[in-house]
């Protein structure tokens, strides 16, 4: 396979992205593909600064927050995504620039302007947009961590984020209903990826 394939997992908090991404990675590796698993925010210096905002978001203005996500993504694209695509890998990223348009859009920045600032970032071949209601997400997060919701996970905030995700009309987006069992969601994801690989005429290496 030459040129690589970029697949982004997107959706509001708690939709199961971090659960589903390794399942898809294991499945694809079992089929003989080279897979790179990655995520944003990254563990790099800007990603670490972003994590400091989770419990105290008002430390930064929406514009400052946006700049941090852009800096983190530039580094991610240059150091991880582009090299992996050049090696012909399937890159699976847990969040990408659709999250910025939705979350920083919900915080007051202009989503269209955010998309326009991503000329440096390769367009994904597929965005798996996991969907469920914000109240379903909040229930899952509470089951996982008790009552503590961080500043990005407050239900009112997630309602705005979910509305923005719902408004995106990019051809690369496939919506996957996430309020089902892990196995059911995985099956839908495999179906969407199989269609992409067939469209690309990608021969399974095995
Ligand atoms: N289909 C599912 N049914 C029930 N619980 C699930 C399902 N998928 C994931 N979970 C659980 O929901 C919680 C959140 O899942 P996960 O961390 O994968 O979501 P996420 O979208 O990556 O969240 P975040 O964006 O906040 O990191 C975890 O406790 C996980 O075990
Ligand atoms: C990439 C990106 C992320 N966010 C927000 C969305 C989530 O609330 C956190 C990341 O948490 P996760 O549990 O590691 O998924 O950050 C954002 O606001 N803007 C972005 O571009």
UniProtKB/TrEMBL annotation:
Show the PROSITE patterns listed in the entry.
THYMIDYLATE_KINASE
The residues that hold ATP are 11-18
User: Which UniProt keyword terms apply here?
Assistant: ATP-binding, Kinase, Nucleotide biosynthesis, Nucleotide-binding, Transferase
Q: List, in alphabetical order, the GO biological process terms annotated in this UniProt record.
A: dTDP biosynthetic process; dTTP biosynthetic process; dUDP biosynthetic process
Specify the Thymidylate kinase-like domain's residue ranges. Answer: 9-189
Keyword Nucleotide-binding: yes or no? Answer: yes
Domain of life according to the entry: Bacteria
Q: Could you tell me the EC number(s) of this protein? A: 2.7.4.9
For this UniProt entry, what's an example GO CC term?
Answer: cytosol
PANTHER family of this UniProt entry? Answer: THYMIDYLATE KINASE, UMP-CMP KINASE 2, MITOCHONDRIAL
The protein's name? Thymidylate kinase
Q: Which organism is it from?
A: Desulfobulbus propionicus (strain ATCC 33891 / DSM 2032 / VKM B-1956 / 1pr3)
